[in-house]
Each structure stands twice: as C-alpha cells, then as structure tokens.
Amino acid sequence: MTAQNRAIAAFTLIELLIVIAIIAILAGIVIGVLGPVNATRDQTRSASNMRQWGVALAAYANDNDGYIPRRGQGVQPVMQLNRPEDWFNALPPYLGLQAYGDLVAAGKRPQAGDNSLFVRPGAKDPGGTAFLSYGMNMNLSPWDLTQATKLTLVSQPSLVVFLAETSGQYASTYPSKRAYSCQAPYRNQGDVLFLDGHVSSYSATYLGVNKGDPHQPDISWLTGTASDAQAGQY
C-alpha cells in the first residue's frame, strides 16, 4: 500500500468513526424525545382501560341493587381466582370479556404486551398466579364484611377510589410501604378510577405510592362505610 493509499484509508476510518459518533448522538436524542411520547401514549391507553372498567362497574351496580363487586384478596398476591363476586370476574362480562379466573383456567392468562383490559400498557409481568395491572381499593367491599359495599352508602363516590394501577400481582391496592401499594408507572404519574366513573392522574407523591395514604382532599381511600374501621391495617 502506498503512502497515499494509507492516508486515504486512515482518513476513511476517521470519517467512519465520526459517522458512528453522530449516529449515537442522534439515537440518544430520538430516545430522549420518544420516551415521554411513549409514556404519554401508554398512560392515555391505561386511562381508557380504566374508564371501561368504570362503565362495567356502573352496569354491574345497576343489575345488583346498587352493590359493587368484592375487592378480591387483600394484602397477599392474588391466588384465589374462582370467586364470581370478585371484580376481575364480575365485571368483564359487562365488557364482552371472559372472567379473569376463566381465562387463567383455560391457559389464557394475559401476558405483558397483550391488548387486554387487565394489563396496562408497558406493564412488566412479575410472575405469579395472576397478572393484574389494576387493583381495587383494598378498603372497598372487602370480604371481611358480611355484605358487599352498596354505592348509595358511600358518602362521596366522586372522591372515593375504585381502581388504581398496581405492580401486577395483587387484586386490590392501597397507598402503602408494602408491595401491594398503588403505583405511578408513567414518568412518576399514576391514574385513578373513581366510583363515579371518572379517571384522574396524579403524581406518586400525591398518591402516597410506597409510603402510605397522604389523605388528600380530592382522593379518598376511605368510603364512609363500615369498612373504614379496617383501614389502619393497610
């Protein structure tokens, strides 16, 4: 190889390295831009899922003399899936879906990335018997009470949480230091479905994620019913 050819080869290598560096910079910029966009898209889809659960709740209450479904299991990862009164079994038929317990029994357990109302967009499957990205307010219609909670007994349905986003293994949730705590998975923001059917978004701090109920004026995990006596356990 002549000196001239070596110079050309060396110059070409430098150019290649420069191009690689530029591509890396552009990739970082694209990722930085798309990250918030994807999070916003996923959060919007999650809120849509929750609104559909709100529609199902209203229909169920209308058909059941105002009573709402049970919360499912409480502070333990959900394993009991065969009770028809639990929200994840009672509500899906109102949306034209199979009960969650039936899906699992048939080997059709929802997976991460599925277009499923049970799974919030972007959720990761933590493993276990069930994978539910949403949890019912743990203090609402617990099995400890003889009867399910009746909507007319809840003092302010527009302030009382029905569903919130969770880590995936729990059927019910509450702001807590424990693993069943509600979550704020979209860039430190989380959605909440209230008993009246509306959905709002809040920061992790405002929700009390992984800390405990901060008792905010516009978000209540307490119901004004007999179940509130148990709230201190969560």
Give structural notes.
By secondary structure, the chain is α+β, with helices and mostly antiparallel strands. It has one domain (3-233). Helices cover 32% and strands 9% of the residues. The protein contains 4 helices and 5 strands, in the order αααβββββα. The chain has helices at 3-63, 87-90, 100-105, 204-207, and strands at residues 134-137, 161-165, 172-173, 189-194, 199-203. The protein has a 5-stranded mixed sheet with strand order 3-1-2-4-5. The longest helix has 61 residues, at 3-63. The protein is globular. The mean pLDDT is 89.
Bin the helical content: 25-40%
Give start-end ranges of low-pLDDT stretches.
none
Mean pLDDT: 89
Strand order of the largest sheet: 3-1-2-4-5
Structural classification: alpha+beta
- The count of β-strands is 5
> What's the order of the H and E elements?
HHHEEEEEH
Gross morphology: globular
Strand content: 5-15%
So how many helices? 4
Largest sheet: 5 strands, mixed
Total domains: 1
Evaluate the radius of gyration: 23 Å
Task: Give the N-to-C terminal Cα separation.
Answer: 77 Å
